[in-house]
């Protein structure tokens, strides 16, 4: 197992690498700190310094890209929310929105998952496949079936609502 003294030896190189990929020194310091914390908690870290060095670089790199993905998803989520709120002022169809949300909630969790990732969050099929740990073709067939199932529920719900309105 790598020791704390080995981490101290690597610290200048880890900082230099983190500074080279991060947007600020503060972010770089956070990356190094998080990487060292993960390494010290990990039972699988290399024992030899020659193996530990590239391993730690990978940890820093992975932490950095994880953070970039989080930022991108948040930005896309906020942009989608803004588009929805901007569009809502034009011609709000609250009843239709409620009907779609209720139909969405009636779907099984695995169907909701693929619809949420692709249609709500805007992930590409390959990204959704990676998240769900399935082949891209599986995502494509699942999203197709999920959209048809949601449409059936929405159209069925609209028919039921129309029938209920006529009964009044």
Short synopsis of the structure:
The protein is mostly helical. The protein has helices at residues 4-21, 25-41, 49-90, 94-106, 109-120, 125-132, 136-167. The protein folds into two domains: 4-70, Rna Polymerase Sigma Factor, Chain: A (Orthogonal Bundle), CATH 1.10.1740; 93-167, Arc Repressor Mutant, subunit A.
Structural class by SSE content? mainly alpha
CATH class type of the largest domain: Mainly Alpha
Beta-strand portion reads under 5%
What kind of sheet is the major sheet?
none
User: How would you name the CATH homologous superfamily of the largest domain?
Assistant: Winged helix-like DNA-binding domain superfamily/Winged helix DNA-binding domain
Count every helix, treating DSSP H or I runs of 4 or more residues as helices.
7
Average pLDDT score: 84
Shape: elongated
Q: Share of helix among residues?
A: over 70%
Descriptive overview:
There is one protein chain. With 168 residues, the protein is mainly α. The chain folds into two domains: 4-70, Rna Polymerase Sigma Factor, Chain: A; 93-167, Arc Repressor Mutant, subunit A. The protein has helices at residues 4-21, 25-41, 49-90, 94-106, 109-120, 125-132, 136-167. The longest helix has 42 residues, at 49-90. The N and C termini lie far apart (74 Å). The model has no long low-confidence stretch (mean pLDDT 84).
Which labels suit this protein?
Sigma-70 family RNA polymerase sigma factor, mainly alpha, 7 helices, Arc Repressor Mutant, subunit A, sigma factor, RNA_pol_sigma70_r2, RNA_pol_sigma70_r4_t2, Rna Polymerase Sigma Factor, Chain: A, 168 residues
